[in-house]
Each structure stands twice: as C-alpha cells, then as structure tokens.
Amino acid sequence: MNEHTNHTGPGRRSLLQAAVVVPAAGAAASVAGAGTADAAPRTGTGTRGGRFDEDSPRFSVAVLPDTQYLFDADSADPEPLRATFRYLASERGEANIAFMTHLGDITEHGTEDEIELAADTFRSLHGKVPYSVLAGNHDIASGDDQRGDSAYLRAFGPRRFRPMPTFGGASPDGYNSYHVLRAAGREWLVLALDWRASDKGLAWAQGVLDAHPTCPAILTTHDIAAAGDDGEAHLSGNGQRLWDSIIRGNDQIFLALGGHYWPPGRTVLTNDAGHDVHVHITNYQDRYYGGAGMIRLYAFDLVRDTIDVQTFAPWFLARDPRKRTPLEAENLELTGSTDRFSLDIDFARRFEGFAPVVPPKPRPAHRVMPRGTVAYWRFDADGPSGAGRPGSPVPAGTVVRDLTGNGNDLAVRLLHDSAADVVTWSADHHDGQPAHASLRFDGGKAPDRGAVLTTKSTAPLNSSKFRSGFTIETFIKLPDPFEGDHAWMGILSWEGRNGDAGKTTGWSEDEPTCSLNVSPERFLQFVLYPDVQDADPTSWSHTLPVGRWTHIAVVNDGRRTVMYVDGSKIARNPAQPATGIETLGKPFVIGGTQFAEKFGQGFYGWIGDTRIVERALSPKDFMRRVR
Fold this sequence. Notes:
The chain has eleven helices and 32 strands. It is an alpha+beta fold and 627 residues long. The strands form five sheets. Strands 17, 20, 21, 23, 28, 29, 30 and 32 form an eight-stranded antiparallel beta sheet that branches. The protein has an eight-stranded antiparallel beta sheet with strand order 18-19-22-31-24-25-26-27. Strands 1, 2, 3, 13, 14, 15 and 16 form a seven-stranded mixed beta sheet that branches. Strand 29 and strand 30 (568-569) form a beta hairpin. The model is unreliable at 1-48 (pLDDT under 50).
C-alpha cells in the first residue's frame, strides 16, 4: 500500500449531521443460503431510527472502507465502528439511508478472533440497516474467490445476509454477493465482489446483471483504483481486469467503488455505450485512529439529478465538542475535493439505454376534475375545437372548451396587428401534466404582439366570487434563451379593473382585480384584490427557470392566499386577509391581462392545462403528478 496522507482543512460547508446514540441490538443470522438465494419481502422499513421511505426521490448509501486497524489482534477497538453503526441506525429515517456497503479489509490478519469480534460488531446493524461486505486481502489467507473455507466465509458468508430484505444471492463459492435495493421508486443493484474475483466469479456477476437488466448497478470491491496526492484515480491491475471483463460492457454499472489504497481519489471513465462510469477510492485507515470508522455518505437526489458526497466520523461527531482532542476535531469531517463533492448525473438520460423512462399516458379529463372544479381547459384533442398539428397557428376565434361543462369556454383573440403564428399548437408538456399538449405564445414588445384566450361575456366564471376559497393551477414553460423585453407579462387574469371595484390600495387603478404575472426578474407575481377587503395581498416567487416546465398553484382558504411552485410553498406569501375575488363580472383571460391590450405585452412561452377549483386543495390533490 502507498503511504501518502490526505490532510484537509476547513471546508466550504459545515456538517449538518447530529449523532444520536441508540442501544446496540440484533442477532446474527443463521440461515444457510448460497447460489441465487431468494430474498425476504422488501418492506423498506427499519425497526429503529425512523422509517426508510423507498419512494422518496432522495436516499443515501453509506460506504465504509478498510476498518482493519480497529480489528488488529490485541490492539483491537471496535467502539468507533459501533458508533458508526449507531449513527446509521439512528439517522436512517432522517437521511433516508437505504443501504451500507463495506469495501473489504474488515480485519488486519483475518484470524478467528479478529473475524469473530468484527462479526459481533456488525450484528448491531441487523434489523436496522441492510448491508453488504466483501473480502479484502487482509481478511483471507490468499488466492481468489475459489480459495474455499475461511474464518471470513464462516462469519460473513451468505448465511449472514439471507434474512436481509435486500439480499439477492451469492456465488456458489460464497465470496461474491448481490443486493437489490428499492429506493426512489425503483430497484438498484449492488454487486459486492471478492478482492480477487475469479473467472467463475465474474461469470456469476454477469449472470446477476443479466437477470436484472433494468437495474442501475453499483459495483463494490476492494481493489479497483489508486490515486496520487492530486486525487486523480487510475485503474489498478485488478481494476483494469474488472473494467475490461465486466464494467465497460455493462451499461448498468454507473458507479464503481473500492478501497485498499490511499489517499482517496476519483475519476470518470467512458464505457462501451459512451456513458460515464464514476470510479472512486475510499480509504481512511492511514488517518488518526485507523480512520475511526469513518463513513462516506452518497446522497442521491433524483430531483436535482445529483449525488452529494460527504465523509465524516460519527464516533468523533458524537463527542462533546468541548472535549474533542485536536486530532479528533481535525478528523471529524473531511472536506477536500476527493472527500466532499457532488456528481451531476442526469439519471433518466444515463439509464435510458437499459431502463428507458416510459412517459405517463395522458389522463382523461374526468380524472382531474375534483369536487368544486368550476373550469378546466386543456389543449389536446379533448379541449379545443379543431386542434391543429404541432407548430401550426391557432386561428383567431378558435374555441377551447371548458371540460367541466360549466360553460366557461375560451376563445382565441389576437392582439394589435399580431401575425397568425403568434400562438401555435404544441406537443410540449410538463411530465406530470394530464394532457400531453400546450399552446406556444410568442408575445412581446417592439413590436407589440400577443394573443389571449378569454371567456365570453356571459360565462359563469366572470361573476364567481370564491368567498369560500379557490385553487388556480396552471403549467408554464419559459423559453431558453429568454430573449427580449417581457417584463410584467401576464399568464392569466380577470379583466376587471381594481379602480372600478373601488379599491384604494393598488399602484394603478388599471391593475386587474386578480392576475398572475412574470416580473422582469422572472419572479411570479400573484396579485389579488379580494371581494371583501380593500387590500391587494401579493405573492412573490423565486426566479423561474427557463427551458423547463413549472407547475403553479395558488390556493386560498377563504382567509389568506398561498402560492406553490412545483408543489413547494414559496416564502413570500402575504399574511393579509383575502376573502374572495372581486371579479366584477369581467371575462377570465389566459395569455395576458388587459395590460397586454393597453401596453402591448402578451405572454411569451408555453401554457398547458389550467384548472380552477372553488375550494382550497392540498398539494397532494394538485394536477401535477409526481413519479
């Protein structure tokens, strides 16, 4: 092994973990199982530390490298590792920890005594967090996975893992195993390969991959790569063999983890499918107290398409900060570029070669009209009269039906001297939108142009007051690049002027009594002049992204208004009372406000399904479907 040390100083982020000590518990598993053993039902729950949420798009995998110096003959001290396991059990619910994987070299000499002490220490995880282990060169005498019986195999062979809900099976020799995790609503494969997998072992591993063709896979082994002080990793001799024989040709393997060498390092290789494979070395045995049971936490975030990685020692974390020694404080958390970093991975695109995302089918209108729905419009074949092919203009006068049957149909009207293609049909849509269609608006200034869709003068929606509350929802997408001056463009509104309603609080008497707009900073602005109060409570969002669909919901419970963006409540919602909408019997508008006609600004971008419900809905009842 090389002898370089990777010391780190203060980092850019502080560790936000809090170690909660829980009693060690659990018994050793004693059920025999090798080959392709059947797994127990995957419940996704733990008995301590909170419930693991297998459907959350955010979950963590803990990685534990070489612990050999904690199990070294008569100098053994398992307490740091016990603290790590207490941490994983107690934080399982908070960090949504799906699994823990050990990278080999559990012990220093692989003796019966060392192995048994380690096996007893690992028992504290049983029933709390599922895990895998594999043999490192210090755990066995010699040879590859065909070496036969060993103290390691008797303690850490398939019998230990069979009761775990994730365990899938082991190779006939017992030294290689696999687990299937259910996390983020899908299955993930973890391969745990002996430090020297034989040809038979690799053939078995290929069979596991073939049997799980749609599972993204994490390959773990002891020896795969080494790095210098610059943190740049390079495949070792054994790593090159694994790369050539099983990694590069199996697109499922996107992450390969090993220990053995220090300092830590990482690299990105390109497989035969042209996709990235992240290769990481994780080993802290050279640090104070043999690494003190230090773990690396891989936090998967499928919303942000990111894996955030951090490295810390729960044993030191659990100590009173006032009593930590200098070395304990120095090794509490590692913040160098090889120990704390983020990986940007477009998971859907990375996995599409073997597990393409099947887009959801459109939902029929009747399934998205809950009690109290007063209007619902969509722009596929169900909604408009004479819907055209994508990219073709929407003619003036086109009627978009209110699918509730309440008579709030919309008609297209072009503003100013706008060209016919200022509004066009589009197949673009939010993934969670009921209809798979939208309208593309090309409103703007210089020259003034745009199009709006308005209810007729006798539509019931024009005179609705909504004093018991309301939920207004829509989907929009702003173009990328977002070019031109589109400040204060309207998304939807009622045409009534607040001045005509006798309101005295607005900045202009021409402002609509209710409108959803986009500011010059691309903030959403929802302005409401209530039916009851003389006020103009206004909600403001953060900056909207471009080139990406956004779901917007404005909810009023008869007392105050709250805006949600993509299902999340925004910060700047007014506390002012707001009861009802002062609609003044004026038409409802999509694609702008009366300002569009007066000052020239029509909407610029896409608008999808829009729904109005005469009561307050909770986020779980929004139109936006979450996978």
